[in-house]
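User: Okay, second chain of the day. Same drill as before: sequence in, structure tokens out.
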Amino acid sequence: MIRKQKTPQEDSLICDFTGGAVAHRFRFGGGRGQALARAVGMKGGHTPTVVDATAGLGRDAFLLASLGAEVTLIERSPVMHGLLQEGMDRARDAGGDIAAVISRMTLMFGDARDLLPGLSPDVVLVDPMHPERTKTALVKNEMRLLRKIVGSDPDAAELMKTALATAGKRVVLKWPLRAGPMQGIGDFSHQILGKSTRYDVFMVG
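Assistant: Same drill. Structure tokens below.
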């Protein structure tokens, strides 16, 4: 099989579940008390099935899978899908408890708006590319590279509408803490706030 030669942007990004911040969070994170876990409804021993409709580098999906959830990751960028597949393969080959987490993650390639109607998750997580900051402070280099690869997600509201029509229990929108609400999707049921990110939770069903 002939692989497409990677661009400098692709070479600068890596999907790594076995080291760095991801592995540290896996070992020493706050368990089900973390904001994302609370947003998807991990309480009272309940473990929902989740579709991460905008998988990116897979970190949120890995966190949820590490807490016991079966997570389907959807990524429509061929480049990001390839990076994710490589990262998951490396983690699976590493064995041990991280490989056990990867076994609860299923990666799909395509547009979540097309794939979601054929799935039946309890929860859909949507983390579109966030609006560009208006302040002069530089965004992290990794996020700049990610934006160059996947674009600005102008159809995020359409994806949210599809998610709201297909999720069994709730849709979680991951959004910048101080950004205004996403337009055209109605009001959220409640919010869970982090340091720089918030989770707008839409209860459905």
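The CA atoms of residues 22 and 120 lie 28 Å apart.

User: Thanks, on to the next one.
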